[in-house]
Amino acid sequence: MPQPPESLAPETAPLAVPAAVRPPSLRRRLAALLDWMLPDSLLGRLSVVMIFGVLVTQVAGGLIWAVQLRSKSEAETRTAAQHLAHSAASAIRYFMTLPPNYRPLMIQQLREMGGTRFFINANSSAVPVKSIGDSHLANLAIDVAAQTLREDLPFLPEARLAFAWPDGLPVASDGLTVNDLPDNWVQHILLTKPNSAPVLVIQMQVESGRWIYLAALMPNPYFLDSDNPLWLDRLVLQGLSLAAILLLTILVVRWTTRPLAALADAAEAFGKGETVPSLPETGSREYVKTARAFSGMRERIKRYLEDRERLFVSISHDLRTPITRLKLRTELMDDDAMRTDFHDDLDELDMMVKGALQSVKDSDIHENRTEVRLDALVLRMIRDARLAGHEIAFTPSGINVMAKPLALKRAIGNLFDNALYYGQKVEISIRPSAGAGGDLVEIEIRDHGPGVPEDAMGTLFQPYVRLEHGRAQNSGGMGLGLGISRNIVQAHGGELLLRNHPEGGLIATIILPAR
């Protein structure tokens, strides 16, 4: 059988990689890194972003300014070094025109007249001068001055140039220093206030055994500092600008987020069934729109809850009368077995109506929060249970919580009653805990009963759901207690967890905020 053309042959489909084993994308990794680095609050995040932005801007501006400053300083240093070298070459040529014997006399006359731009001396050899050290601008000035001297005095040997500090500067081959000279002789090359300025020393051999020594300040004596971008006044200015931007950012963000905090508090209070004050409709357009939407949602939910309660009350009231009439009519039946069956069905129907109404009432207990002593609340339950012969283990903890007393008692009581029904022994413990949202309190109730199958654990909070052993041991229950307890705990901002103990029995854990 001929094979299909290669172009028509089916291609092998690429294997699909499950989403669970795919590596996280770069965007997700960056988002996770930012979440880890940035604070949790909006104020902290905006402050960090603003500070980072200002710092990046200042660093970039500082680098640009430093490059421009360095280029400008190099151009000024090059020009000043050329000008100073031209003057030094002119002075050397002048002294070379004089007879060697007259040079010391001319130097002496110049000193007595107040000196010139240069301090000049005639020596028999080169004077060792200690350099100021490695400096970019100093090396540039020396290179430019040396090149200029070579161009102006090509007939003389290479000049020796160096920058030195004026204190203790040697000026003669016999060891004479600047400190040994009269002030009027060196007044043009000494600059010690506010800081010492470096002196450019030029030594050139004009004849065998005859050296001309010249020392002078640069036109800008402090030229070495001219390319330093870290000036104190600039650092202070950048620090003040950063502080001002940070302060304004904090003020603006706090002003912006204060209504959001009020909205969050109102939503939390409304979720817990507390009285919620009206939100002010002032601020940004987005906040006003959100506040109006929240107020409308709150009113709709409130009306729904009120309508639900009235509906259940009406249903309970309306069903009670026909149920009673049906019970009376069953009494007229001659068949005893059928009359008993009718009575059982009507009793079950009556219990279901009462249970549904009780579920609504227990989940919506209207009371204010107050400080509840958990030990006293639990001990009152335990006292009655012990009188009935139940074995209960409990150690007081001394922990208090802010809660609705009757609602919390109903939530704990439902769990406590379930533990008494299904277990021969009950253990209760109260302990502090720590969570991501702050300090927590855990109330743990364990029974020693058969426990719950793992596949049925997720259905326990559904209304009217009862397991087989529950119906056998407590035929009068309706399967509403766990749902009521969870609703009350969630209204307090907490959580109700159920799990099996490894050694048998069920553990119900109520987690509440400490405050």
Automatic annotation (TrEMBL):
Every Histidine kinase domain range: 314-515
Every HAMP domain range: 254-306
Annotated TM spans: 42-67, 235-255
Superkingdom classification of source: Bacteria
EC number: 2.7.13.3
Keyword set includes Transmembrane helix: yes
InterPro entries: 2C_sensor_his_kinase (IPR050980), HAMP_dom (IPR003660), HATPase_C_sf (IPR036890), HATPase_dom (IPR003594), His_kinase_dom (IPR005467), HisK_dim/P_dom (IPR003661), HisK_dim/P_sf (IPR036097), Sig_transdc_His_kin-like_C (IPR004358)
Catalytic reaction(s) noted: ATP + protein L-histidine = ADP + protein N-phospho-L-histidine
Entry GO MF terms: ATP binding; phosphorelay sensor kinase activity
Swiss-Prot/TrEMBL keywords: ATP-binding, Cell inner membrane, Cell membrane, Kinase, Membrane, Nucleotide-binding, Phosphoprotein, Transferase, Transmembrane, Transmembrane helix, Two-component regulatory system
Subcellular location: Cell inner membrane
Gene Ontology CC terms: plasma membrane
Membrane topology recorded in Swiss-Prot or TrEMBL: Multi-pass membrane protein
Record carries keyword Kinase: yes
UniProt cross-references to PANTHER family, sorted A to Z: SENSOR HISTIDINE KINASE ENVZ, SENSOR PROTEIN CREC
Protein name: histidine kinase
Organism, scientific name: Herbaspirillum aquaticum
